[in-house]
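Hi R.,

Here's the input for the 6-O-phosphono-beta-D-glucopyranose complex you asked about:
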Amino acid sequence: MEINIDLSCIMVIFGGTGDLTHRKLMSAIYNLSYQNMLPDNFAIVSIGRRVFTDEEYREQIKKSVSKYSRFPMKDEKWDEIRSKVYYLDFDFKDNDGYIKLKKLLGDLDERYNTHGNRIYYLAVAPEYFEPIVGKLKFHGMNTHKGSKRRIVIEKPFGKDLKSATYLNEKITSAFSEDNIYRIDHYLGKEMIQNIMVIRFANLFFESLWNNKYIDNVQITSSEMVGVESRGGYYESAGALKDMIQNHMFQLLSLIAMEPPVSLHTEDIRDEKIKVFKSIEKVTPEYVMENMVRGQYGRGKIGDKEVVAYREEDKVSPASNIETFVAMKLYIQNYRWVGVPFYIRTGKRLASKSTEIVIQFKSMEKLLYFKEFDNLEPNLLVIKIQPKEGIFFQINGKKQGVENRIIPIQMEFCQNCPLENNSPEAYERLLFEVMKGDSTLFTRWDEVEYSWKFADTISEVWKNKQPNYPNYDSGSWGPKESDELLKRDGKFWWNV
Ligand code: BG6
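And here is the predicted structure with 6-O-phosphono-beta-D-glucopyranose in place:
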């Protein structure tokens, strides 16, 4: 692949021994290298608190990459990056560590000809974001004339609007907005990038994409896993902050946005933000009526009995944190007025899937619609994971002498023939940071608006005790989630 942009850089990973680095980042780097997408002028410096030599660290990374990477571990491929991986141990708050780091980076710049370009990747717990940024600034490592200095911040970006604003002020005092890459890994997923293409490169979708033809939109991201080992974090988050404020809001904005004036980053982001601005004001009454929360109890996932959320490790036995959210929203603009957007996400649900269902309006009650009552509506389903593709439901005549009409399904599965070998989200995202393209990252005002929204809901929920657990593991969430749609004469499509 021919890229005419200077990709040379040293990637500095804070949190080099953490799960994210082992599972995702290093595999993404290996996969990029495997496809010859990394520049020769490239090196990685990982920082952690545990003491390892470079060689010991490289061996551990090799093991993790062998386990998690989508491409097989091949020694000749691994050798291309192995010697470019370095490890330093120091406490993220320790000045001496940054002095050591600065010296090493200077030496590596000379060895690899990386021109002082840096990508600082903060794969650490949120409480370290501020101290690391502060130290980088204090040691003059945040900017350098003629070099690119970028910073990548993992989620969660704050825990509410106030903390996010504070964090943002700290980061922007050291890095300019165009050098800040706020990760939302959903934006790295293949089919999420495909949403804009499907919408804006196909006449028959874009012309029907409005309240005249669309009855409702359903955005679901369901998981079968529970909180796993992340009970500590999840107890201060919950599904609203963990999934809705970021991933689900990003999906909503891509589905609902107007066509941007160009494909440039800021033009796209400008349109996304208009969607957030157009969401109907959420009052406490609105929250109580149109937002459902839930927490999983015991149940079965497949054949396996699983424990309730309150029995999970590092979770309070009286926890009132939600593991499920469903809501109805309206977007008050000319395109969408009157169309409900139903959004739901939860853990320990019946299946793992992320998909967007566009349900079209029914035809007038004439001809076939008059004769055959209750014909199914047309559906367009954008499947994001685990299958990636598009599914259509249309009405057609059943083959045979009888005159019967049945729903016909047409399905395009993008990753099925490739045996699920689509690029990992992190592969794409790291590559975009190297290119200096922040389209697939969230701009501050997107974060700001989505926190405002989430904070309003949290505030209302805080004042009203839920009655948990209210759904069984392995189900589709609390019954109120189904009732939310039933009231409107609709139901969730589990396609
Ligand atoms: C993360 C959340 O951002 O997204 C997790 O913190 C969640 O709780 C995960 O499990 C879901 O991501 P994916 O890619 O598996 O849908």
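One thing worth noting: Residues 14 and 429 are 17 Å apart (CA to CA).

Cheers,
M.
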